[in-house]
Design brief:
Layout lengths: L5 H81 L36 H6 L4
Length: 132
């Protein structure tokens, strides 16, 4: 480069300006790529958090449904218990004694009796008693 040439100095400045502008464009492009990648990463993170929240909400919903189902079962049991506790087998037998008069029991090997009740109400203890 000739330092005495007046156009050489202007050309050098022009090249420096163009190189600077190219560097600035590359830097802006790189920053835009980084911004887009950060946005994609944030969206992916949000999806993961959203999935976790959806799973948590689904779990809570299932727990609520299970609890509601258990409460309904408890309510049915309580109604049945009240009905059985208030039932007078002496005056209102559902099966009349007369139904057993002509019943032949010689061929019966096993008799099954069902005890209905919640855990811990003494069903097993009752079976274990010697009632003779």
């Amino acid at each position: 480069m000739d330092r005495t040439d007046p156009t050489a100095r202007a050309q050098g400045r022009q090249r420096a300006r163009e190189e600077n502008e190219r560097g600035m464009r590359e830097l802006r492009d790189e920053m835009e790529r980084d911004r887009r990648q950060a946005l994609l990463d944030a969206q992916e993170c949000t999806k993961i958090e959203g999935d976790a929240q959806r799973r948590q909400l689904a779990h809570q919903r299932r727990d609520g449904e299970d609890q509601e189902r258990n409460q309904k079962e408890e309510e049915r049991f309580c109604k049945l218990k009240v009905a059985l506790m208030n039932y007078d087998f002496q005056t209102n037998p559902r099966i009349k004694k007369e139904s057993f008069r002509d019943l032949v029991v010689d061929d019966i090997d096993v008799l099954s009796i069902v005890l209905i009740g919640r855990p811990g109400t003494g069903k097993t203890s009752f079976i274990g008693k010697n009632l003779s």
